[in-house]
Specification:
Length: 504
């Protein structure tokens, strides 16, 4: 039997360590502007070497790039978090690229400030189109979930196609703190490049969300939705809701006549009405809800191009007080004091640089999204192009995980409204002639438009729709047409023919 021996071996290996600073840089990417401001405020209180930058006329991100050299003027040359990722694992990719950036920072030093950046380019014609702690945004947030967040979470439960999902998300963002849709539907439809009836159809489905009564356009509609959810919207109650002005005057005699009920029934109806919630959105706390502030502005230029700029109002500006650092460094006596000062200096420098890189990264990704979706900006939602994270990531030289973080909870204000960046990503349908692919959303829109123009003598089967799309250069299978039609809650051709005959 062989004896047990002990021996000492030395092995050499390579590995990446996820330092607190790298964790911070990744976390900052996915924070929205409100969470970012709160985080920076905490750092200002915690770190004596950090101070708010209140200087006027600060150099913008794009101006800094211009100053740094000709190669930095090109969008793909801008400093960002990532170099082209080669690792399969997204976190490993973030570690590698941020590790490279950290080495460059130590060699070149951290910047002092950042401001708004802009990227300008043209399209082809009009419509051619630093603490050592791991920061947890959710854990450090003292607020409850907002109404908008609650409604957005429920979107996945509704069988919306991509176009209607974008419209739905836009309508949710337009809702006020009380839960009402106060926006002008005609103006909203015009901005989105669709009809009012299409907006109303999406809005009607949103009114099925919780809490009951949300997304209503009036008090009467809000109450009716709540009663409908309770299965209590009978003709008498509907009549009472339509005459709330008379109820406010306490003219019960007239209300009995209008509703066709006696005094006892009327009292029960009024009690039931008073038990409803006139402002369903307030259940989520009006103090915590907020108007969405865009992270990026997109404006049309006189030459029919688009200017993409960061929203400077949402960017916290901080810098390292090097003068104070020099003073307290010379005054430090113990090793403990020296270590504390050194850590504060390192963390402050990392935060300043991370904020600057975060701004550059958001600008870079937003500019590419605008370049890809310029037809939507010029013509409307039906002109959304197929787009995925990989396409944007490859174009800007980042990893898909970084693009995903950048586009979540980041909003872009466009001439067509305010949208979250992630809603611009759509799947694609191949072109029959081998040309540019079509957005699945644009194809759904065509299918819906064809069906809306049907007559009793010309009801389109799924096969007929396939033929028409093919004649327009769109290669799509019959089962895909059927799937899209069912997702839009459109009946089959047989059922539609029967409906047309009954309504004739």
């Amino acid at each position: 039997m062989a004896g047990l021996n002990q021996k000492l071996e030395i092995r050499q290996g390579q590995g990446l360590v996820m330092t607190p600073q790298l964790q911070q840089a990744i976390k900052l990417l996915q924070l929205n502007n409100l969470e970012l401001s709160a985080y920076v405020e905490e750092e200002l209180e915690r770190n004596p070497l950090l101070e708010r930058d209140e200087r006027e006329g600060q150099e913008s991100v794009s101006e800094a790039a211009e100053r740094e050299g000709a190669e930095a003027r090109a969008e793909r040359e801008e400093v960002s978090f990532d170099s082209p990722a080669q690792a399969e694992d997204s976190l490993d990719a973030d570690r590698e690229t941020l590790y490279d950036d950290s080495k460059a920072d130590m060699a070149g030093g951290a910047g002092d400030s950042y401001g708004a950046g802009s990227t300008d380019w043209s399209k082809t014609g009009k419509g051619g189109s630093l603490s050592g702690e791991d920061y947890d945004a959710a854990a450090n947030s003292s607020r409850d979930k907002t109404l908008r967040e609650h409604l957005h979470d429920q979107l996945a439960d509704i069988a919306f196609d991509v176009r209607d999902r974008l419209v739905a998300a836009h309508l949710i963002d337009l809702a006020d703190d009380d839960g009402y849709m106060r926006a002008d539907l005609d103006e909203t439809a015009e901005k989105l490049g669709i009809t009012r009836s299409e907006v109303e159809e999406v809005l009607c489905r949103l009114q099925q969300l919780e809490p009951a009564g949300v997304m209503a356009c009036s008090l009467q509609e809000c109450l009716a939705l709540q009663l409908k959810e309770k299965n209590r919207l009978d003709p008498a109650m509907a009549a009472l809701i339509d005459h709330l002005v008379i109820l406010a005057k306490h003219d019960y005699v007239r209300l009995r006549e209008i509703c066709g009920v006696d005094q006892e029934d009327l009292e029960d109806m009024i009690a039931e009405l008073r038990a409803l919630t006139p402002k369903p959105g307030l259940a989520f706390g009006s103090d915590n809800t907020r108007a969405i502030e865009p992270d990026v502005f997109v404006r049309e230029r006189p030459d029919y191009g688009w200017a993409v700029e960061l929203n400077t109002d949402t960017l916290p500006r901080v810098l390292v007080n090097n003068q104070y650092f020099a003073e307290i460094s010379t005054a430090a006596r113990s090793d403990e004091e020296k270590v504390f000062i050194s850590e504060c200096s390192q963390n402050a420098s990392w935060l300043v640089k991370s904020l600057e890189q975060r701004a550059r990264t958001i600008l870079k990704v937003a500019s590419e999204i605008v370049r890809q979706q310029d037809a939507f900006l010029a013509k409307g939602v039906a002109w959304l192009r197929p787009l995925n994270l990989k396409t944007v990531a490859d174009a800007v030289g980042m990893h898909e995980s970084t693009v995903s973080r950048v586009t979540s909870n980041k909003y872009v204000a466009t001439p067509r409204g305010l949208f979250e960046m992630k809603y611009f990503f759509t799947s694609s349908i191949a072109s029959a002639d081998g040309g540019e692919a079509y957005s699945a959303e644009a194809v759904r829109y065509r299918i819906k438009a064809m069906i809306e123009c049907e007559t009793i003598d010309d009801v389109l089967s799924d096969d007929k729709i396939v033929e028409r799309l093919l004649s327009d250069g769109i290669d799509i299978a019959r089962r895909t047409v059927a799937k899209y039609r069912e997702a839009m809650n459109i009946p089959s051709s047989v059922q539609r023919r029967r409906i047309l005959k009954r309504s004739a």
